[in-house]
Amino acid sequence: MNKEKIALVVPIYNVLEYLSECVNSLLNQDYENIEILLINDGSTKQNNLELAKEFALKDERIIVIDKINGGLGNARNVGIHFYQNKYNFEKINNANLNTYKITNNNPHQIKALYTKNELKVSKIKYIYFVDSDDFLSKDALSKCLNAFQKDKDINVVWADFARYYDNISDLNTPTQLDLYNIKKDMIINTKEWLKLINTNNKRAFWFGRHGMIDFDFLSNIKLEFINNIIHEDHYFGMCLFMQAKKIYVLKDKIYFYRIRANSIMSYDKQITKDNLNPAIYYLYDEFLDASLAKKYHKCFSLIRNLEAFVNFANKYENKDLAQKFLILFAPYLLILSKDIMTFNKDPKLAKEKFLNLVNILFVFHKNICYMLSKNQ
């Protein structure tokens, strides 16, 4: 097995009761050449940052970044930018942990970085995004590395996951690979991936935390998550797979996805300002209703995804694949986001964006708007 370094990027937001399980699952991997980036995304409970710093004191493979809240995609982008050497650092303290500040452009509002040893940016080969309330199987990284060795043109390992229910009834929901009727490991290209989705008539696709990515490939295609939205892994995953030479589909369930109340995806029924993400408090101030603020943010996020898809497809060299890409995914996102037209207030001008996208896609392919009309 190769000994190239893997970066594990872990955004943290108010998950104190789960963070130790997550980090320990990474530290105890059977593949040890790793670096863990714990990114405290403006947790409103200080103990989240303190626990992350305690882990950094115990293991030199951990770097802690403390930043203003910006959401999951924003925090993951900090990890991407860190390993792309986009930040300059200056040491400001060398107490228990070495403390650094950013001295150049700081769009994600990083407040400080903490390390046990001197801070340096490692040369990494692969990157894996892990949510801080989830955890990995002990052999997750070694299985992904074995998959990459099957073919030099593999850019992404797409692995299966298992749901871990935390005080929530088991919903018995199929995994993503189940939805696409995948029964065994395989290597596919973009065209085969689109065919897989079309054959199984499933339009929901996302990829963020369910596998490993070749970091040079990710940097070369200049792909990042959309900032300040939810469902950020739709655009990221689809555009990643559209540009990959080959994708290894790993049927093993190596990622444990925790289903819990008060998560970003909100499996709880009670939505209040207290369990809104601080990044959308401004919407609560507009609507004075937490449920409306969250619903509006969801619609806006899906519209931003679609807007980014259209821009991506317009620049994609293979126009045939670009057309198939939009026909497969655009109707799904339009249908999910059409409730934007029911809001009396529209602080992000999302209705205008939505109607503009409907017009663009109608010109592009009339079947897209026909499918939308059938779902009114």
Explain how this protein is built:
It is a single chain. This protein has 376 residues and is of the alpha/beta class. The chain has helices spanning 16-27, 47-58, 72-83, 140-148, 176-179, 190-199, 215-220, 232-243, 281-287, 290-315, 319-337, 350-364, 366-373, and strands spanning 6-12, 34-41, 62-67, 89-94, 98-102, 110-115, 126-129, 135-136, 154-165, 186-188, 211-214, 246-259. The protein contains 13 helices and 12 strands. Strands 1, 2, 3, 4, 5, 6, 7, 8, 9, 10, 11 and 12 form a 12-stranded mixed beta sheet that branches. Helix 2 (47-58) links the parallel strand 2 (34-41) and strand 3. The relative contact order is 0.12.
Shape label? globular
Q: Alpha-carbon distance between the termini? A: 53 Å
Order of helices and strands: EHEHEHEEEEEHEHEHEHHEHHHHH
- Major β-sheet annotation: 12 strands, mixed
**Unreliable spans:** 263-268
Task: List the total number of helices.
Answer: 13
Integer average pLDDT: 91
Cα-atom Rg, whole angstroms?
Answer: 21 Å
Strand content: 15-25%
Tell me the total number of β-strands: 12
Helix share of residues?
40-55%
Structural class by SSE content: alpha/beta
Relevant terms:
376 residues; alpha/beta; twelve-stranded mixed β-sheet; 12 strands; 40% helix
List the helices and strands and how they pair.
Blueprint: E1 6-12, H1 16-27, E2 34-41, H2 47-58, E3 62-67, H3 72-83, E4 89-94, E5 98-102, E6 110-115, E7 126-129, E8 135-136, H4 140-148, E9 154-165, H5 176-179, E10 186-188, H6 190-199, E11 211-214, H7 215-220, H8 232-243, E12 246-259, H9 281-287, H10 290-315, H11 319-337, H12 350-364, H13 366-373
Parallel strand pairs: 1-2, 1-7, 2-3, 9-12
Antiparallel strand pairs: 3-6, 4-5, 5-6, 7-11, 8-12, 9-11, 10-12
Helix pairs in contact: 1-2, 6-11, 8-10, 9-10, 10-11, 10-12, 11-12, 11-13, 12-13
